[in-house]
Design brief:
The chain is mainly alpha-helical. Helices cover 79% and strands 0% of the residues. It has one domain.
């Protein structure tokens, strides 16, 4: 059994590295390819300028509050509270702006995805795009709420609860989410959590892992939305293994265990590595949220390697 798991672990590690490499390569290709870049560059520039303007206005609106507060509060208090709030509020403008476009102007980002995919197979990209998609349903609403509540919960628990409890809860959640994988992924984190010197790093890794999964769910939504539609309509010509791999509820359950095991051990690890890089890019001050455009284009560029697209191939019924 041990000999069987070690090759699987090595394969997962290789696929994880492949996913990170694909993210780097996809980023450069999305920026270098004029046809792909032209699809999202105008929207990116408009949102960037709008974010700068709104941030500047917010700074100007809150500046008088800071001046008035300085008359009654100590300079250290003003710096730690009022001024910190002003900069924090202004920095959220790009996040809110891009998020609003993500959820209310789906095609703005979907265009970038299919532009990337079209560079690999234009006919397949057009065929997939023509399929009916389900963007908003209970599954996606649950995904969005779960992500938002998790971020809020992490902050509240870390703020209110004891430091040990505030860190142990997300680590335990991480352990539950990877319960179907080898303990090799989980044990080092719990060991690192035991030592105070590595406890904060452990928490950071857990957050990045959970955020990477959420990121991948978003980047491949153009494919997932169409697979959900096919599953809802009972289209047996469409392979919905991807929904199973990404823990998305569907009405069709594929019973081919060997194929599912390959996806979980290979593609899932690659997608995790792919999403991890863009999670790091999102942390960039102010400009981070705009990497969503590059992320979608890169996801389209490497969709043939990262997700199962044979369901939409020419030999399948449309």
């Amino acid at each position: 059994m041990r000999q069987r798991k070690d090759p699987q672990l090595a394969a997962r590690a290789k696929r994880f590295v492949f996913g990170m490499t694909a993210a780097v390569t996809g980023t450069f290709r999305a920026l270098a390819d004029k046809e792909v870049r032209s699809v999202f560059s105008r929207s990116l520039k408009v949102l960037l300028v709008l974010a700068f303007v709104l941030s500047a206005l917010l700074h100007l609106m809150l500046l008088p509050v800071e001046w008035i507060s300085s008359l009654f509060l100590e300079p250290e208090t003003v710096d730690a509270s009022v001024r910190a709030f002003r900069y924090a509020a202004a920095s959220t403008v790009p996040i809110l702006l891009v998020s609003a476009c993500r959820y209310f102007s789906v095609k703005m980002f979907e265009n970038a995805f299919f532009a990337g995919l079209a560079t690999r197979d234009a006919e397949l990209a057009e065929k997939i795009r023509k399929r009916k998609a389900i963007y908003w349903d209970w599954e996606y609403a649950h995904h969005v709420m779960r992500f938002g509540l998790r971020q809020l919960g992490f902050g509240l628990v870390a703020l209110v609860a004891k430091p040990i409890l505030g860190m142990l809860i997300p680590v335990a959640q991480f352990g539950y989410r990877i319960r179907h994988m080898e303990l090799t992924f989980l044990l080092p984190l719990f060991v690192a959590f035991v030592f105070p010197a590595t406890r904060e790093t452990t928490l950071q890794l857990v957050h990045m892992w959970l955020d990477s999964r959420a990121m991948v769910r978003e980047l491949f939504d153009p494919i997932i939305a169409r697979l959900k539609s096919a599953a809802k309509n009972g289209d047996r010509n469409v392979n919905t293994d991807l929904l199973t791999d990404m823990e998305i509820d569907s009405e069709i359950a594929d019973s081919r265990e060997e194929q599912r095991e390959w996806h979980q051990s290979g593609s899932d690890a690659a997608r995790l590595g792919f999403g991890l890089l863009f999670c790091c890019m999102l942390q960039l001050p102010f400009l981070g949220p705009f990497t969503w455009f590059i992320g979608f284009a890169s996801a389209g560029l490497f969709a043939p390697e990262l997700v199962e697209l044979s369901a939409f191939s020419a030999n399948k019924a449309t």
